[in-house]
Amino acid sequence: MPASESRLKVKREASIIEVGFRDRNILDEANIQQIGEEIKALLAAEAQPKLLINFADVDHLSSAALGQLITINNQIRALKGQLRLSNIDPQIFQVFVITKLNKLFEIHDSAEKARASFR
Prior knowledge:
Layout: E1 8-13, E2 16-21, E3 25-26, H1 29-44, E4 50-54, E5 60-61, H2 63-78, E6 82-86, H3 90-98, H4 101-104, E7 107-108, H5 111-117
């Protein structure tokens, strides 16, 4: 089976890994699974990962995508790393507020502010 195309746009700046998405809608279960696996592989290469997930181009997230975010957060905490989220669409952010995930994640308005918040 050929390797499927990456669902992520990854860039590294100093010790920070910034991940963006190729899809505007993150709804498909198979794609969400692939995103999780790709991020897990990025984290495995780091001692104490600093991961910024940039939602700038994302219009819709499914509940499965939110579940994947929680899993990623737990993986990063286990590695004593740091996770930041940025550029979340206001409608998606409302879902974070309703589910109280805005209390679990450190969320910033911009990728620049998120990068500056890493210790």
